[in-house]
Fold Aldehyde dehydrogenase.
Amino acid sequence: MEQTIRNQRVFFNNNNTKSLSFRVLALKKLKRLLQENEEILNNAIYKDFKKSSFDNYTNELSLLYKDIDEATKHLKKWASIKKVTTNLVNFPSKSYIIPEPLGVTLIIGAWNYPYQLSFAPAIAAIAAGNTILLKPSELPINTSNSIAKLINENFDPSFFKVIEGGIPETTTLLNQKFDKIFFTGSVPVGKIVYQAAAKNLTPVTLELGGKSPTIVTENCDLKTTVRRLMWSKYLNAGQTCIAPDYVYVHETIKENFLKECKKEIKASNYNFENGNYVQIIDEKNHTRLVNLIDKEKIYFGGKHNITNRYIEPTILKNVKDEDEIMKDEIFGPILPVLSYTNLSEIIIKIKERPKPLSCYIFTNDNKTRKKILNEISFGSGAINEAIMQISNSNLPFGGVGQSGIGSYHGESGFKTFSHYKSILEKPNWLELNLKYFPHSKIKLKIIKFLMKLEF
């Protein structure tokens, strides 16, 4: 690891990644490799937790292709020098900002969308002109192996290298000096990464999680709401960082809401054979999730089988804020349903929790929409939709507070892996004596006047 990092630093310091043409060629090469190896990638992820080729393309690979296409199309603009206004105190001169790569970057991917959450930040890092050391999650081992083989057999390790392993390897990596660390995962591990980075004052982007709330008001379009909500909740068997974690539904429509949810789940027929459902990633998480299911509050579902790591799409009713399932992020196919009558009261409850990664609002009332958006802080969200905000690369994706630090996707990702170097350039044909000694009252008066004009 240490030698690889040293090699990458030499490669970077020799300005190999500074050329835009180098970056574009690397991005196009990555896309070609992904496309040519789709079948291998599909087989690997199916072996790990039965994700279908349909879901692998729609949830993961298609987003990566789009990221690469957008980066290659707009890279020249993103990397261009940005002219800015110069103040009068510095007359005559010009000011501009130069985007430059940070250097040697470490990207630690997550297991729930192992391709998308490993390669998306890597695409941004390449576009910005960095070298990359990628550590995919070890839980989906076949996926990790396929990522390592794809990259390590086709890229110069001094530029792009994959290192596999678990906690020991990750710990060793975090003890090294990087110019940027990008981590996707849980809040507890995010804190460990942040502490390790602090030793070297390394800038960090943390994409974490949290209990993302959903609010369903009495004037929503109920059938459409339920259809979109059920799809987003049970996609990837609920193992999605921006999945709706729990739902507050207005008391007046609660029973109809539950009935529609049950109907929609049955119609969707979630199972491995249909290719629209996946396994829980491992037995440890399966056991954790099963222990969260209060049998007395099951409205629908609840069946499970640890042999094939299956948990049926489950809805819990009459859930209270103090219940065990409301303490931490669920990250599985269990949906707690709580009711409310007073919107302001549940906003207070949501705000008492750590700031969530996402929030979803289903309503046709503009006043309600504005109130929630104005009063609740969260990373990203949607109105009358869920999860789909991630598919728009013009929307920066990231958390706030405990749900994360920083954002990426599209130009936001380029900025995350760049430093913006500010430059003041002054000619030699004129030199004002205002700043030089000896000082005088008239000089101070002129300076104060100029400063007033600027502000």
Notes: The chain has two domains: 2-208+405-419, 213-393.
